[in-house]
Amino acid sequence: MELQAVLMAAGGGSRMTDLTYNTPKAMLPVGNKPVIWYSLNLLERVGFEEVIVITTKEVQKMMSTDPKIKEVKMKLDVVCIQEDGDMGTADALRHIQQKIKTDILVLSCDLITDVALHEVVDLFRKTHEFTETVPGQKGKKKTAEQRDFVGVDHSGKRLLFMANEADLEDGLSIRKSIMRKHPRMHIKTGLVDAHLYCLKKELVDFLSENKSISSIRGELVPYLVRKQFSKVNSSKIKEDTDDQSQKNSDSMSHQELLITSGDERLLQLAQERSCWNDHRGDMSEAYHGGKLRCYVHIMDQGLCFRVNTLAAYIEANRLAPKLFEEPAVHPSAFVSERCQMGSDSIIGEKCQIADKTSIKRATIGNYTAIKEKVKVANSIIMHHVTIEEGCNIQGSVICSNAVIGRGADLKYCLVGNGQRIEAECKNLTQQTHY
């Protein structure tokens, strides 16, 4: 691979704290594999031999003992950052600047996708709607995130504009410099950022000089998108003078981004003598004079979502196992012949499933014991869980090391790590137990 891979795995899972209270987001089990394993597997499948993993000491320790992570053949260059530090994704890149020797592919550890990475520069896809009832919540709640407004050219590949709904208090405003060069811009509102980026090495150097930029998604990418249409002077990108208000909003100490290339002279000569026009709608020069360009890959088919909310976590456990052709029941698990198991369920390593049980649309974690006459439907049972006789569990998430007492009846509940539900508890509905 010509790129270096950088995997961001230090996030605390602030939007799914019910699950990450005892287990870091990167190590939450999805289909009985840690979330981070899916990103590592994606990189390994396309030929990466090494990846820089930016994470915390807690995650590093858990990775070193996890059997699925041990199967990864790539070299893992783990860089730990402060667990209590307020470090954004751009800060993390700045932290590893000395390790970056080429252009980079940056991705989040909570991304699960079957996208063809060779087609990707920036990756977005249509919003995935999660319609299942979420444990601990009343009714069917949709994600509260506000929409992104994403502007692309007629080909759907050039990224021209990007803004979040939260930042548009005075309405949607498009700069004149963009409209002059791309009068056929399409604004899309049904896309979500997958946090997968291809970045030039120069951008990491740029970040080292502009420490006010903390986030790739929130600050760096919008800044680069704007800079595409600034006037060019001595190979430096300067702010377009037709939009002074936008210029004032850039508060970085070094606002100019130097665009360099080993073949800059040849590239310029090719552009000057080329009869090919890369845009339509006006009679301007073929390349519009811009050396800084942002592109987007819109994924319309396949599997692609981030495991960053409780609803997304539930959906991931249902869909992620379909990415791989693996047996639904681990060879080391014992499942009674008198167990009714749906084809859309998976049973983890060394599980014990007793007589007269019913398991439908469920993920059963490793080393979990389910006793006689238990019904489990539309639920996620993590590792080392014990479910006693006669329980009925529907639409729930049971975290690792929990014990569900005999005869308990749970519907749309979230049971925390190591918690115990007393025997004969009935009609526990839409609750979180810690």
TrEMBL record:
Annotated region (Disordered), positions in chain: 235-254
Family named by the database record: Belongs to the eIF-2B gamma/epsilon subunits family.
This protein's name: Translation initiation factor eIF2B subunit gamma
UniProt record, GO biological process: cytoplasmic translational initiation
GO molecular function: guanyl-nucleotide exchange factor activity; translation initiation factor activity
The Nucleotidyl transferase domain, residue ranges: 5-132
Function description: Acts as a component of the translation initiation factor 2B (eIF2B) complex, which catalyzes the exchange of GDP for GTP on the eukaryotic initiation factor 2 (eIF2) complex gamma subunit. Its guanine nucleotide exchange factor activity is repressed when bound to eIF2 complex phosphorylated on the alpha subunit, thereby limiting the amount of methionyl-initiator methionine tRNA available to the ribosome and consequently global translation is repressed.
Pfam families hit by this protein: LbH_EIF2B, NTP_transferase
Alphabetical list of Gene3D superfamilies matching this protein: Hexapeptide repeat proteins, Spore Coat Polysaccharide Biosynthesis Protein SpsA, Chain A
Quaternary data: Component of the translation initiation factor 2B (eIF2B) complex which is a heterodecamer of two sets of five different subunits: alpha, beta, gamma, delta and epsilon. Subunits alpha, beta and delta comprise a regulatory subcomplex and subunits epsilon and gamma comprise a catalytic subcomplex. Within the complex, the hexameric regulatory complex resides at the center, with the two heterodimeric catalytic subcomplexes bound on opposite sides.
Alphabetized UniProt keyword annotations: Cytoplasm, Initiation factor, Protein biosynthesis
Annotated ranges, domain EIF2B subunit epsilon/gamma LbH: 333-424
Cellular localization per UniProt: Cytoplasm, Cytosol
Main location class: cytoplasm
GO CC list: cytosol; eukaryotic translation initiation factor 2B complex
Organism domain of life: Eukaryota
